[in-house]
């Protein structure tokens, strides 16, 4: 999620905060309803021709003949593990880029994870891989990378996928766009089916989706698609399709339920929720936030009730301008209130400027199987604005979760406590309000401090619901002294967290 530009103009927003963008035929609070009634082979539609391109291998799935993987084996970043990069070609016009790394330890038995950044239009590779939790991190100046000892591929085989079209190296030949969450979910589902057909060794282990920022909406929608497609396969098996072993959804500083989260903004910024001094309690910004909050919440509720563009578009613009704009009024970095935005940067962090420099290097492009004339940018504002003008930025993505939770999907939601954009109070608030079979247990659960195994320092606090002896089935984690991109700020803590989660081990270690 990229935010500070929002203060100047809504079409410069890089804050990932819109929701379920559905076509009129699927304009439903539960995007799963679209997939529930759609056979897997009919959910994926594309034109018949397929473009060939850069790459050492091309692979076509027998059931998705209009989708193909172009693969190459990079020799950069972390050469100690197997890795692949390339494109999912969707017909002859749309091409999704990905970069995959095997786990450093026991890849045959390690779970598979999909990492998604938000935006919309922000790169999972530029921000996620090179800035947060990937096997390598961008080095000073952007001419090289350094090995990240706290990469999440310590414990998982991990895919960094650039979506929707226009994000990172993903591109379209004819200007076609993806601006609905339903289309995003279909493309990701097809990608996973093709990927697992080509690499069946990863299909038998647990699969986890980890989605950050606007991923608070991507994650539930894609999970719902997979969940309902798995149900369809159970009743009508297809020999060429696999059940995707979706074990959990991880939401990282995401915007998922806007009403609860916008409601919390003055509480965090003005009334003591922020762990560091932020806005002056009785200053102009705080008075403004409290004055405009009731109107914003009424507009969000109307959007929830109607799910209509004429209602939801004004709610988006009103709430963003009137509430989010105040978060940058004192010059603080809205992603991390401990800091100021670094001078001369569009996204507050100089490292993200270095990422653009690195990814546009001709040698790097060649290694990744990318054409030399393709341009990379960490966040694409054109993609961003096209999602926002759909008028669905204030819909409720959390409504997709209870059905899956009740049927066994595990949910981890974490938030760094120095992020003002998707502050931890609002994230925990919507989790407390979400009704499902574990709701009462979660609400009554105590908040406890957890310490990292490696350094034994207080990393954050958690509350959980679910069977004893594990990390929980519904778990909230507040990460201390971390901002919006928590793995960048607290690499040891976030690796410890995700290790406990995917291995389903307790947060409190026995002495």
TrEMBL record:
Alphabetical list of Pfam families matching this protein: Peptidase_S10 (PF00450)
InterPro entries per the UniProt record, alphabetical: AB_hydrolase_fold, Peptidase_S10, Ser_caboxypep_his_AS
Keyword Glycoprotein: yes
Signal peptide: 1-22
GO biological process assignments: proteolysis
CC terms in the record's Gene Ontology section: fungal-type vacuole
GO molecular function: serine-type carboxypeptidase activity
UniProt KW Transferase keyword: no
Keywords for this protein: Carboxypeptidase, Glycoprotein, Hydrolase, Protease, Signal
UniProt xrefs under PROSITE patterns: CARBOXYPEPT_SER_HIS
Similarity comment text for this entry: Belongs to the peptidase S10 family.
Protein name per UniProt: Carboxypeptidase
Organism (species): Cerrena zonata
């Amino acid at each position: 999620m990229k935010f500070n530009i929002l203060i100047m103009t809504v079409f410069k927003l890089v804050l990932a905060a819109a929701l379920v963008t559905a076509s009129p035929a699927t304009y439903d609070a539960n995007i799963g309803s679209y997939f529930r009634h759609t056979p897997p082979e009919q959910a994926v539609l594309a034109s018949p021709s397929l473009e060939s391109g850069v790459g050492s291998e091309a692979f076509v799935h027998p059931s998705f003949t209009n989708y193909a993987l172009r693969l190459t084996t990079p020799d950069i970043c972390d050469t100690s593990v197997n890795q692949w990069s390339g494109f999912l070609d969707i017909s002859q016009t749309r091409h999704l880029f990905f970069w995959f790394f095997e786990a450093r330890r026991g890849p045959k038995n390690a779970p598979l994870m999909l990492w998604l950044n938000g935006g919309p239009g922000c790169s999972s590779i530029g921000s996620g891989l090179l800035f947060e939790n990937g096997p390598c991190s961008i080095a000073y100046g952007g001419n090289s990378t350094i090995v990240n000892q706290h990469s999440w591929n310590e414990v998982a085989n991990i895919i960094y996928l650039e979506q929707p079209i226009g994000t990172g190296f993903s591109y379209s030949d004819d200007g076609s766009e993806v601006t609905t969450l339903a289309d995003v979910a279909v493309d990701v589902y097809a990608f996973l089916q093709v990927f697992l057909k080509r690499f069946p060794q990863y299909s038998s282990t647990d699969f986890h989706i980890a989605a950050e920022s606007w991923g608070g909406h991507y994650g539930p929608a894609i999970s719902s698609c997979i969940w309902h497609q798995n149900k369809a396969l159970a009743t009508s098996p297809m020999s060429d399709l696999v059940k995707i072993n979706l074990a959990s959804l991880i939401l990282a500083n995401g915007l998922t339920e806007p009403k609860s989260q916008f409601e919390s903004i003055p509480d965090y910024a003005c009334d003591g929720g922020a762990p560091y001094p932020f806005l002056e309690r009785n200053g102009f910004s705080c008075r403004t936030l409290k004055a405009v909050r009731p109107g914003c919440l009424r507009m969000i509720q109307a959007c929830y009730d109607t799910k209509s563009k004429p209602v939801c578009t004004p709610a988006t613009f009103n709430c963003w301008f009137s509430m989010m704009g105040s978060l940058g009024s004192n010059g603080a970095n809205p992603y991390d209130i401990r800091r100021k935005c670094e001078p001369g940067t569009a996204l507050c962090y100089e490292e993200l400027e270095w990422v653009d420099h690195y990814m546009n290097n001709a040698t790097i492009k060649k290694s990744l199987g990318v054409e030399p004339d393709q341009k990379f940018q960490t966040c694409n504002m054109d993609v961003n604005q096209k999602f926002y003008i759909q008028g669905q930025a204030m819909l409720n993505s959390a409504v997709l979760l209870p059905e899956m939770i009740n049927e066994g999907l595990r949910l981890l939601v974490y938030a760094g406590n120095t992020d003002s954009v998707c502050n931890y109070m609002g994230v925990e608030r919507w989790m407390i309000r979400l009704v499902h079979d574990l709701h009462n247990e979660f609400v009554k659960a105590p908040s406890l401090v957890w310490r990292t195994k490696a350094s034994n320092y207080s990393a954050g606090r958690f509350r959980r619901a679910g069977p004893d002896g594990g990390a929980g089935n519904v778990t909230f984690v507040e990460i201390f002294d971390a901002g919006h991109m928590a793995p960048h700020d607290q690499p040891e803590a976030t690796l410890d967290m995700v290790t406990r989660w995917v291995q389903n081990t307790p947060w409190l270690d026995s002495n």
